Each structure stands twice: as structure tokens, then as C-alpha cells.
Fold:
Amino acid sequence: MADYPTMWNGPGTTPPAGGTAAQQTAPPPPSEPPSGPVVGRRPLAEVTALLDNIEHAVRTGYQLEEFHEGVRATYRWAVGQGRSPITDHSASIPDAQQLRAEDDAAEGAMRGPRRRYANGAQHAAMWLRGATEDQPWAFWQT
Structure:
């Protein structure tokens, strides 16, 4: 995520007082556990809706950047529609340990040629497992 010029996490910098803008405006975590199946800490229905929106954007002509290709691949894996994007594990809904392993593998892959893809995959895995509240896909509107 260091590619974004508006990020505060560059060398020698400190976070803004009160957290980042996303942290300041993020809704509080739910007080009740989600009803129904989950992927990590996210409801499966929410992840499916995000993936459907990404697919809709592609069908209507949006060309995904490499970062969002990584997000898409991670969400496809999370709902059991594809293999994991970095470690190439089988298509099944991942558990917390598998999400953590994918996050860790993506961290290492960010030193390679597809670092933007790996960054998207890592960010999506982090969001799924609850390590961040910053969901990496903004809903596509037609």
C-alpha cells in the first residue's frame, strides 16, 4: 500500500492524530457476530456482493488495474470460485489460518514482478481476516 502518495506510512513519518481518514470514518466493528456463513471475519454474503460488483464493473467495460486483479482473485477464492491468488491452494472457502498464510505469502510476493497484484491480494486477505477495516474495492456504479 506504500504506492499511494497520500499514505502516511513512508519512512520517518508518523500516523495522523486520530488515525487515518478511513479509520476516523470507519463504522465500529459489529457488536454481534454475523449470522450465516463467514470468511475470516466477514459475512460470506458481503464478500459475494463485492465480487459480484467487481464482475459487473468488468462486464460494463471497466479494466481492472493489477491491484484490483489481486483483490478480485482473493475474493473469488474466498467464496470458493477459484484457487488462492498467491499460494495457489485449492478452490474452497478459506479458514483463518489459510487467510493468514495467503497474507504472509503476498507480503513476500510484493518483492517480485507482480507486486501490485500481490498488494491487492494481501489487502483483500487482510480485510477478510479482520486485520484492517479498509475494504480495498470501491463499489462500481453504472
